[in-house]
Amino acid sequence: MLGSPDLPSLPIPSKSVPTVKVYPSADEASLAVANQVAAEVKQLELVGKTAVLGLPTGATPEAVYRYWCQFHKERAFHWGKVITFNLDEYWPLPKSSKHSYHYFMEQRLFGPAGFDPRNTFIPDGMIAKAQIDEHCRSYEAAIERVGGIDIQLLGIGINGHLGFNEPGSSHQSATRLVDLAETTRERAQPSFGETEVPRYGITMGLSTILRSRHVYLLAFGAAKADAVHCALHGSIDIDCPGSFLQQHPNVHWVLDTAAAAQLELA
Ligand code: PGA
């Protein structure tokens, strides 16, 4: 019998069964996630491990961050040892710009919740073009050095993007400079006002995200219903980067009723 020629080895998508929780409101969902992640941070501390969090920006995580600030103020929850890596940053954009994700994180979370600036990492929006590749490799290496991301919080774009991994991004992609999709720039434009939204961003790759041990994907509002449906029930495809989460063994989808409107849930 003739042997069949070797096929190039392609990763075989294996579908996992995700957990999907739907809450009456974004605020109730955010409180649940804030409590759950804080409890996991404590659990890790109890076994002598410093928690490593992957963090998003945008409207989606704002209430979670507000609750974490509240835990710090009212329950003396200590975030100072937690290590964080942000998903992305605009490029080129200085940290001092009020549109930067550095500014967002400092204002909404790191400052008021008492994170230690030595433990918080965000891609540098002002890194010189010639140094971007090296900067991205160092970002990946820094994540590896601390043992990888324990808990990754994510939002999802209306086009299914994760971080700035726009449709067309490979599931094997690492941290890199990317062109932003027009829909991403249009949605960001109102908050930039007169200033033009940058054309590029530096983002963790999909493979970086998929290597996290535990993922919480948060999506709120009717505008996210298509993306949520396509990511959870569509085929695993580069047209919907969120669909690659179907290959991750430990994803919790945390939705409000509007974002879950197109799902067939039991
Ligand atoms: P949003 O953005 O949280 O502002 O809706 C999420 C995303 O585009 O990933």
Describe the protein in words:
The protein is an alpha/beta fold and 266 residues long. It has helices at 26-46, 62-75, 101-113, 132-145, 182-192, 206-210, 225-233; strands spanning 19-23, 52-55, 83-86, 88-91, 120-121, 151-154, 176-179, 200-203, 214-219, 251-256. The protein has a single domain, classed as 3-Layer(aba) Sandwich (Rossmann fold), CATH 3.40.50. The strands form two sheets. Strands 1-10-9-6-2-3-5 form a seven-stranded parallel beta sheet, with helices on one face. The protein has a three-stranded antiparallel beta sheet with strand order 4-8-7. 41% of the residues are buried. The structure holds 2-phosphoglycolic acid (PGA).
Keywords:
10 strands; 7 helices; disordered N terminus; 266 residues; alpha/beta; three-stranded antiparallel beta sheet; binds 2-phosphoglycolic acid; Rossmann fold; seven-stranded parallel beta sheet; single chain
Number of domains: 1
Structural class by SSE content: alpha/beta
Q: Quick one: biggest sheet?
A: 7 strands, parallel
Order of helices and strands: EHEHEEHEHEEHEHEHE
Strand order of the largest sheet: 1-10-9-6-2-3-5
Total DSSP E strands:
10
Continuous helix count:
7
